[in-house]
Amino acid sequence: MGHTIHFWLNGDERTLTVPASHTLLDVLRNELSMFGTRESCGIGMCGACTVLVDGKLLSACLLLALQMEGLEVVTIEGLGHDGQLDPIQQAFIDYNAFQCSYCTPGMILAAKALLDENPTPDEEQIKEYFSGNLCRCGSYVKIISAVQEASRDHPDQ
Predict the structure, then answer these.
(1) What are the extents of the domains in the chain?
(2) Among 11, 24, 107, 151, fewest CB within 10 Å belongs to which?
(3) What is the Cα–Cα distance from 98 to 45, expressed in whole angstroms?
(4) Model confidence pLDDT, tens digit, residues 42-76
């Protein structure tokens, strides 16, 4: 039996009927083709499924889709506007802050949440904020540099 939910995804209003057991990750990938939200550990420890829900950094694998009723969900697909990359996305490219790119969407969304909360973080604050995002390729130095660069371009600067 399905339940109808109404929520906003990347600025667009959505209405879906979903089974009560489906996670937000299931719905994003399987119903809405938001493949930037990645599945990895399934227990909220790796950051691959990171999304923003009402501006808060959360793991989509731990949230039931039904919990999204009336909320705003932002995935990596929702960051750029009018064909332009978000400054954080551009900084990740400029600093080559990824190798395989599997973790990159979650890292970029973590950077967005951090910079919205603290537009000028120092290196230790960046490391602490990213403690829930794993990069198996070990690109952390470049990721930190990209976040520092993006902080210089953040609108609150």
Answers:
(1) 2-76, 87-152
(2) 11
(3) 19
(4) 999 999 999 999 999 999 999 999 999 999 999 99
Average pLDDT in the chain = 93
CB 72 within 8 A of CB 58: no
**143 φ, ψ (degrees, to nearest 5):** -65, -45
For residues 5 and 53, the answer to whether their CB atoms sit within 8 Å is: no
* pLDDT at site 100: 87
| Residue 18: strand pairing partners | 3
The architecture of the domain spanning 87-152 is Orthogonal Bundle (1.10)
For residue 99, list its beta bridge partners. Answer: none
What are the backbone dihedrals phi and psi of residue 87, each rounded to the nearest 5 degrees, phi first? -55, -30
Strands across the sheet containing 50-53: 12-19, 2-9, 72-74, 50-53, 56-59
Q: Give the C-alpha separation, 122 to 124, whole Å.
A: 6
> Average pLDDT by consecutive 10-residue portion of the chain (157 residues)?
95 96 97 95 92 97 97 97 93 92 93 96 93 86 93 70
CATH class of 2-76: alpha beta
